[in-house]
């Protein structure tokens, strides 16, 4: 069934409601012969005329569904649908009631209907109010289905207009509380003459009113609770999806009230989180992820950090020679493959890639991410990098080797540069010594050299795994004090 057809079926609720009231009236009075009058009237007025109006009301929405107009042209009518449908139904019932009153006045000129006109009008206004409120909640429930299907099929969200739930509660209170009480009050004190003309005793009239009130109030209550529970359940479902990590989720906006506004704000929140994650992910490709997270959390600021840290410095062995046989694109592909291999190892041990410098790489441990075992983790990283390289054949068809220097000392990390161009880096003698140790590998024909400071912190954890071979005290260029250097290698099984 199409959405238009479903809307038409819902609008037939006017006819069904009126026919139910008429049948109930005839059953109570025993005048079943009047059914021959009720059926044609319903078919012509509350079916035929009703559906003509419903087609006109639904027309802008149908044109959008057919692809004839833009979505913006249909949005206004979707918002108006419950109120326009309610007003149309109410008008139909009122007009039908006045036509019936006029016809009855012609048929029975001696009944003094003019004197009863105010009471009859009051009765019809109350009944039409019942019908209008019933149709409002019926179509409001349909509108939620309509919005859900438009969202699912077209991906279009209908932003709420800012309507208030209290208006619905007021309407519900009128349908369930005030109108029934008023009808019963007037039944007792004002409608007795009209009921006599209708052929009803006081008891029959009271029974008829109770039956009508129960049906309309009960159905209104049913659609009220559906109107509240459906959008809440939909929103909760979207929240659960986000809780599972699905940030592509959007909650369908099914109502124009506070619940619809809540769903709209939820979508905005998820979008902001998704944008934030995208920025963080993208930013993290150019600066350490931990730094990116800190900068975003602190609204662009990154406070300098002073900390004891371990620095790992790498450089590809004979890289210049390798590049001579490769095209520029080939060099880039090779470096990307090389760095990806090393970064996987670094990440496993909690290191943070601070800089890529040509074919060299500066890695920090314990800054900016805290790591109590930073020296041991750095040494393990260096050894496992060598193992990973020994097992890997690169895109140019050959293996590659890298030299690594590791040193521990006090450093300061922060952003340096101009106001419009900053770069995160670490400074201190510890960084320079790590770079010098990497260079010393050429003299010793080694691949991993560490300082005594690093060795002293790491040995307790790594003594059973690695050999720490002293290479003596070396004078590091730029340093007045000598540094004791150790070569690290895996212990061999005896």
Structure commentary:
Strands 1, 2, 3, 4, 5, 6, 7 and 8 form an eight-stranded mixed sheet that branches. This protein folds into two domains: 3-263, no CATH class; 300-490, Alpha-Beta Plaits (2-Layer Sandwich), CATH 3.30.70. The chain is rod-shaped. The protein has helices at 3-11, 13-29, 35-65, 71-107, 113-154, 165-189, 192-197, 202-243, 258-283, 289-297, 319-324, 328-348, 374-390, 429-444, 452-462; strands spanning 305-316, 352-357, 360-365, 402-418, 421-427, 448-451, 466-475, 482-490. The chain is built from 15 helices and eight strands. A hairpin with a 2-residue loop joins β4 (402-418) and β5. 64% of the residues lie in helices and 14% in strands. The chain is an alpha+beta fold and 494 residues long.
């Amino acid at each position: 069934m199409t959405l238009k057809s479903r809307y038409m079926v819902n609008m037939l609720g006017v006819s069904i409601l009126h026919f139910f009231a008429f049948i109930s009236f005839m059953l109570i009075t025993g005048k079943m012969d009047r059914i021959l009058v009720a059926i044609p009237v319903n078919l012509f007025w509350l079916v035929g005329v009703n559906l003509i109006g419903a087609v006109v009301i639904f027309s802008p929405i149908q044109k959008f569904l057919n692809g004839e107009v833009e979505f913006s042209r249909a949005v206004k009518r979707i918002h108006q649908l419950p109120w326009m449908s309610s007003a149309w139904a109410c008008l139909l019932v009122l007009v039908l009631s006045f036509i019936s009153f006029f016809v009855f006045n012609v048929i029975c000129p001696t009944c003094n209907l003019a004197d009863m006109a105010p009471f009859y009008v009051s009765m019809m206004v109350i009944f039409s109010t019942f019908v209008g409120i019933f149709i409002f909640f019926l179509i409001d429930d349909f509108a939620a289905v309509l919005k859900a299907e438009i969202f699912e099929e077209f991906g279009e969200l209908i932003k709420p207009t800012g309507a208030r739930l209290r208006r619905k509660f007021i309407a519900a209170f009128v349908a369930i509380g005030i109108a029934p009480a008023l009808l019963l009050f007037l039944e007792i004190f004002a409608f007795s003459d009209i009921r006599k003309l209708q052929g009803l005793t006081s008891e029959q009239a009271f029974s008829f009113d109770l039956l009508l009130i129960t049906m309309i109030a009960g159905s209104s209550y049913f659609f009220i609770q559906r109107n509240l529970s459906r959008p809440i359940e939909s929103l909760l479902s979207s929240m659960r999806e986000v809780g599972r990590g699905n940030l592509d989720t959007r909650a369908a906006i099914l109502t124009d009230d506070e619940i619809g506004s809540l769903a709209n704000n939820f979508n905005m929140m998820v979008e902001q989180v998704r944008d934030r994650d995208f920025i963080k992910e993208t930013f993290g490709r150019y600066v350490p992820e931990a730094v990116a997270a800190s900068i975003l959390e602190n609204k662009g600021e990154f406070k300098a950090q002073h900390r004891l840290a371990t620095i790992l410095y790498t450089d590809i062995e004979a890289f210049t020679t390798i590049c001579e046989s490769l095209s520029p694109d080939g060099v880039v592909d090779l470096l990307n493959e090389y760095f990806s291999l090393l970064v996987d190892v670094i990440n496993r041990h909690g290191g943070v890639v601070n800089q890529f410098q040509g074919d060299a790489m500066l890695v920090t441990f314990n800054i900016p991410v805290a790591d109590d075992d930073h020296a041991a983790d750095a040494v393990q990283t260096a050894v496992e990098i060598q193992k990973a390289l020994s097992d890997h054949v690169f895109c140019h068809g050959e293996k590659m080797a890298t030299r690594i220097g590791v040193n521990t000392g006090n450093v300061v990390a922060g952003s340096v540069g101009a106001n419009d161009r900053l770069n995160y880096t670490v400074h201190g003698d510890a960084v320079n010594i790590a770079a010098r140790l990497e260079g010393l590998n050429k003299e010793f024909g080694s691949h991993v050299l560490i300082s005594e400071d690093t060795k002293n912190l790491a040995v307790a954890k790594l003594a059973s795994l690695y050999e720490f071979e002293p290479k003596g005290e070396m004078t590091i260029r730029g340093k007045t004090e000598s540094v004791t250097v150790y070569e690290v290698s895996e212990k061999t099984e005896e």
